[in-house]
Amino acid sequence: MNLDRLQRAPNIAIVGSSSPVGKELKDLIQESGLPVGNVKLTDTEEYAGLLQEFAGQIQITQVISPSAFENVDIAFFTCSPEIMRAFSASGAAIPEVSIDLTQTGREGTLFLNGLTSLSLISPIRDSACFISPHPSVIVLARIISALHRRFPVESISVTILEPASERGAAGIDELQEQTVRLLNFQPAGSKLFKGQIAFNILSETEAAAGTESLIRSQLAAILGASIPSPSLMVHQAPVFHSESFSMFVKFAKAAAPTTDELRSCLADAGGGIVLNENPEDGPSPVSVVGSDKVHIGRIARDPGEPSTYGFWIAADNLRIAASNALGIAESIMLSAATPR
User: Fold this and answer.
1) What is the pTM (predicted TM-score) of this model?
2) Beta partners for 294?
3) What is each CA distance from 260 to 268, 274, 298, 299, 309, in whole angstroms?
4) For position 338, what pLDDT does the model report?
5) What pairing do the DSSP bridges indicate for beta strands 97-100 and 231-236?
């Protein structure tokens, strides 16, 4: 591990650079001005040789292989879960420091910027794998932790509307193809999804159950046992990017907050949460694209249960995941500068 290079301008690799989140991460690194040395964009053989631009220079996409990781200080894994599992099963060496966004359940240190203690990173001296949480976990953990710090929470239930991009490029392509076919009065056809996703909502039972289990376990690891585990249900929505949430939180009756108190609490939670004060212009999957913030719109008290509130939430799943991964990398670089 080259600690001097790691703190100043690490050589990086983006594994799965042509995936939706890989493209988002590549763009965000350029926009942030993060100092990096050599950049390697890698992918499967299908995309090998693809020309991609990074920092004003043309990069040739390389095949994912151990040789592609030579002299790499930080590797971002943004490929599909299937590719990540195959690579891990091959026994191939992984760079000493990696940040995994694939949600495959790989062992590592789960890290959410702003909530996870920096002591889990600093000081970094040996090989380490950091897991960036599922985008829904990033959103829910930020909100729930902010509420729990001010008010006693008794129960939480959430309905999550997932975009096609959570199923990778194949999900985006299928939604687009189905939309075009249906508008041309042709059968939708389906390969990845278990039916028509265009102009429709699917339960996608098997995929949803796996996602729900992952979200619960990651939330428990980040928030701890003192916060009730939320009831979850994930549905597949016919949108390309951005996830939406309908969340209900029941507070202790003796200390139930007012709507204004909830808004004040969330407004003071830090830069990661944005409150939309205009009830006629709430956040939507379209309006939040390109933002790494959690956007909260309507907050409504249940007239039948005054200690229960409903929240409407939207966030760009790709941007928020890439932003957290970039934050992990910045923390790693700062850790490398910590005196030994």
Assistant:
1) 0.93
2) 273
3) 12, 15, 12, 10, 12
4) 65
5) unpaired
Mean pLDDT on 119-145: 88
Q: Which amino acid is at 16?
A: G
Radius of gyration of the chain (CA): 21
Please state whether beta strands 57-60 and 51-54 pair in parallel, antiparallel, or not at all (unpaired).
antiparallel
Per-residue pLDDT tens digits for 133-181: 999 999 999 999 999 999 999 999 999 999 999 999 999 999 999 999 9
Count how many residues are written for the chain: 340
Helix (H) or strand (E) holding 245: strand 243-251
Give 318's pLDDT tier (boundaries 50, 70, 90): very high
All structural domains of the chain with their residue ranges: 3-133+322-336, 136-317
8 Å CB contact between 313 and 283: yes
Residue 31: per-residue pLDDT: 92
Whether residue 78 contacts residue 41, with contact meaning beta carbons closer than 8 Å, is answered with no
DSSP 142-167: HHHHHHHHHS-EEEEEEEEEE-GGGG
Q: Please give the CATH number for the structural domain made up of 136-317.
A: 3.30.360.10
Cβ distance 265 to 146 under 8 Å?
yes
Which single residue is written with the structure tokens 């619960």? 216
CA distances from 213 to 105, 113, 328 (A): 11, 22, 24
221-256 burial, b at 16+ Cβ within 10 Å, e below that, comes to bbbeeebeebebebebbbbbbbbbbebbbbbeeeeb
Q: From CA 242, how far away is CA 289, in angstroms rounded?
A: 7
- pLDDT exceeds 70 at position 339: no
CATH class of 3-133+322-336: alpha beta
The confidence score (pLDDT) of residue 49 equals: 80
CA–CA distances in Å: residue 290 to residues 100, 216, 321: 21, 26, 12
Q: Phi and psi of 279, rounded to 5°? A: -65, -20
On the question of a cis peptide bond just before residue 123, with omega within 30 degrees of 0, the verdict is: yes
